[in-house]
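Spend some time on the protein that follows and explain the fold to me:
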Amino acid sequence: MTDKSYGVDPPARPVLRRSLGVVDGIAIAASSTAATTSIGIGLGVTAGVVGLHLPAIMLLAFLPVLGIAGAYSRLNRVEPNAGNGYVWVGRSLNPWLGFMVGWVSIVATIAFLAYTTAVTGSALIQLAGDAGIHSLGGLALDPGSTAQTTLLGLAVLLAVTLTAVTGVRTAARLQTWLLIFEYVVLLGFCGYGIVTGPHAFSLSWFDPFDIPSATALAQGLLLSVFCYWGFEAAFTVTEEVRDPRDASRAGLITLVTMVLLFLLGSVAFQRVLSEEELAGHGAEGLAYFGERLASQPLAALPLVALMFSAVASLQAGVIPTARGMFAMSRDRTLGPVWSRVSPRYGTPAAGTVLIGALAAAVAALALVIPRLADMIMATVNAVGIIVALSYALTALAAAVRFRGLLREDWRQGLRAVVAPVLSAVTLLCLGGYLCWSFYTSTDHLEISPDNGWFLLLTPLVMIASGLVAAAWAKWVRRSAYFRTGAGTDADAPRLLTTP
């Protein structure tokens, strides 16, 4: 029978190649979470909201994210699928909601890639400054310029996209070595900062009730959730690991590692830097931290770690997004180009290249915000709201899927149903409250990270575009997904195995 969405007889089901182990999954998830970037940039952004309460907000945000991670892990054990939340939510709640989870995860990651592209360029310009190169062809190099950092970062994005095409295992090996370097530098500098920092340690840093306002608490929590975002990248390659349980282990190990690193980093930063210094250095926060603790060339090591983290997270962002779109394409909710598997590499090569191109286009659009720090704030706020929505729907899908455990074993039921529901409600309330705060904070629209309507408009555009794409998939592509919510090969993926 001819499939009108393809124009020819339906092609054979596309499959990916199983070649990864649990360490590879950890490398991909940890690179996607990008602890060094989150510490070097995210802590300063968050400190601008919550002040000297970074340890408190990081711990508080970890609790709902842990409930989300448990939901991902349990769902992955019963239904490993590259589309993960898109398939799980579609089957357990509603296909429209499932499509939205898949769609907003894609557009949020593309926005993140655009943001990280600029961060990578900023790190390179800062390194050039440390090497004594302050101008190029008569142009003064500015690590805070969105234009300069984006143009330089685009070259790096092109390189990592081409590397991702050659296979996940190649990327994972590269990211493993980058992570080892990053963590050694982070542990060394943060440990030294905790011991020698001039600012006295205070237990009030861990007191969330001392945060200035409810709005600051909500925004700080979503910013912190954004920092944890990425652990689920391990589940997007679940069809490429030898045992799907390895994806669950990788995701949980990554998340626990992240909270420990974030606590170490937040305490170290507050021991070394004042509140004004924390909030005032933005994308250059980690470099400033290193300069306060050491002289050159050792002071450049945190900056090198930041650059490695940004490069790895660019690559790690491209990989799971291409896999998510691969899963949606084989269900015919997206076009066939996204599910074309390279016979040479066993990867969705065409989709991977297109993801890089889309991220480059969004990075170019971000040039309307001239200062890098402002662009980072606008992106992080928008993506934080979207991530909270995606996580919440996936957690609710887990609660619905395993609700029968409440009758069979109340202990299992608490972990499988109650914890995800509490996490989902927390994130939905936070996102809703923050949206209301943005809406009521101004009476006009202006392209500015300080304008509430602009901050609210970005996630609304992401969601609206998903509704349009879902309608097209349902009524034009006539995807069967919207009848069942079940993804292709959801129960028993047929994948190539390499020796």
Notes: Residues 1-12, 490-499 have pLDDT under 50 and may be disordered. The CA atoms of residues 250 and 322 lie 19 Å apart.
